[in-house]
Specification:
The structure is a single chain. With about 200 residues, the protein is of the alpha+beta class. It is about 35% helix and about 30% strand. The chain has helices spanning about 30-35, 40-60, 70-75, 80-85, 135-150, 175-195; strands at about 5-10, 15-20, 25, 25-30, 90-100, 105-115, 115-125, 155-165, 165-175. The N and C termini lie far apart (about 40 Å). Helix 5 packs across helix 6. Strands 4, 5, 6, 7, 8 and 9 form a six-stranded mixed β-sheet that branches. It has a three-stranded antiparallel β-sheet with strand order 1-2-3, with no helix packed on it.
Length: about 200
């Protein structure tokens, strides 16, 4: 397991503080990647948090407490051999920050399988047919921030895990495309700030 960074996350405000300077980051990765405010159903966020927590408990070797109302998602997700093949957990729900850019974020998981270091992001969907927006920029941001602080532990692969009632899909994304997408999102973000 990588040594955690000195980053404190305030869940209510969804903000990140870089503890060495006590500076609260101005932006979260999600604000940079998707600048439109979230106006969706709050129950989707609760569902996502609960399913993420169940997977975190499974991978960290703890007893899983999946609420019954989400069993349609967790029964499929938590019984996948993809997770059994993990040789080492490098980070789970890792709090990351780039104080120079004043951004923070939390990556779902960073694991080692054999000699490959794999970064993954879990996405929960209401159904298998639901729209899937591939998190290129998000995974690129996590890769960038991990590389900034853990020079010997840069990701080799980026994956998205799609969880939906009755099933789960695993999709590998091109890591360079993720990094390019993140840099593009950052350039657009900076341009937006110059307008105000």
């Amino acid at each position: 397991m990588l040594k955690p960074l000195p980053v404190e996350f305030n869940e209510q405000e969804h903000s990140y503080c870089w503890l060495p300077t006590q500076e609260t980051m101005l932006w979260s990765i999600s604000q940079v990647v998707n600048p439109r405010p979230y106006n969706g159903d709050p129950s989707h966020a609760i569902r996502g948090h609960s399913i993420h927590r169940s997977l975190e408990l499974l991978i960290s070797g703890q007893e899983v407490e999946a609420p019954e109302k989400y069993w349609d998602w967790t029964d499929s997700l938590l019984n996948q051999s993809w997770f059994d093949e993990i040789d080492e957990v490098l980070a789970l729900e890792a709090r990351l920050a780039d104080p120079k850019r004043s951004i923070g974020g939390s990556c779902d998981g960073f694991v080692r399988k054999g000699n490959r270091k794999i970064l993954y992001d879990l996405k929960t969907k209401i159904s298998e047919e639901s729209r899937r927006v591939k998190p290129y920029a998000q995974l690129g941001a996590y890769t960038d921030l991990l590389s900034l602080h853990y020079r010997d532990h840069q990701p080799d692969e980026a994956w998205v895990v799609w969880s939906f009632p009755g099933g789960v899909d695993f999709e590998q994304l091109d890591l360079q495309q993720c990094l390019d997408s993140w840099e593009g999102a950052w350039v657009k973000h900076e341009a937006r700030q110059e307008l105000f």
